Amino acid sequence: MLTFLFIFSEGATSERPEAAMILQVTEKGAVGDGNVCPRSTAAPTSCPINCFRADPVCGVDGMTYWCGCADAACHGTNVAKLGACEVGSGGSASLPGQALLLVHIVWLFLLGFSLLFGLF
């Protein structure tokens, strides 16, 4: 039985060493240019990217791209880190602008609840 498994495991490997190579993405980047995602020679086949599972990455522009490295490549930005960006990490709005947006959202919630419960 062990011989049988050994024969099939040897047959499953490729003769080409580059086919067995695995690209490992690190925090410092696979390419050395500050990009966490590996550099591909070809652009994504279609933009925008349609993904079935969220794979968030944080771009160097401070925006979260929910469809991974290909989504960031479609927008022409490098990836700063794997995972979603933190609030206030340099997105398109300044920190006072984000604070104003938060106050506006809280105000809308309060107005909605007051109308729902008949306070106004």
Structural class: mainly alpha
pLDDT < 50 stretches: 1-32
N to C succession of SSEs: HEEHEH
The CATH topology name of the largest domain reads Wheat Germ Agglutinin (Isolectin 2), domain 1
The percentage of residues in β strands lies in: 5-15%
Organism: Linum tenue
Protein name: Serine protease inhibitor
Transmembrane segments: 99-119
Keywords: Membrane, Transmembrane, Transmembrane helix
Short description:
With 120 residues, this protein is mainly α. It has helices spanning 2-12, 69-74, 95-116, and strands spanning 57-59, 64-65, 79-82. It comes from Linum tenue.
Feature tags:
Wheat Germ Agglutinin (Isolectin 2), domain 1; 2 domains; elongated; Serine protease inhibitor; 120 residues; transmembrane helix; three-stranded antiparallel β-sheet; disordered N terminus; mainly alpha; membrane; 3 strands; transmembrane
List the helices and strands and how they pair.
Elements: H1 2-12, E1 57-59, E2 64-65, H2 69-74, E3 79-82, H3 95-116
Antiparallel strand pairs: 1-2, 1-3
Transmembrane segments: 99-119
Keywords: Membrane, Transmembrane, Transmembrane helix
Protein name: Serine protease inhibitor
Give a verbal description of the structure.
The longest helix is centred in the C-terminal third of the chain and has 22 residues, at 95-116. A hairpin with a 4-residue loop joins strand 1 and strand 2. The chain has 120 residues and is mainly alpha-helical. The protein has helices spanning 2-12, 69-74, 95-116; strands spanning 57-59, 64-65, 79-82. The chain has a three-stranded antiparallel β-sheet. Residues 1-32 have low confidence and may be disordered. The protein is built from three helices and three strands; from the N terminus they run αββαβα. The chain has two domains: 30-89, 2-Layer Sandwich (Wheat Germ Agglutinin (Isolectin 2), domain 1); 91-120.
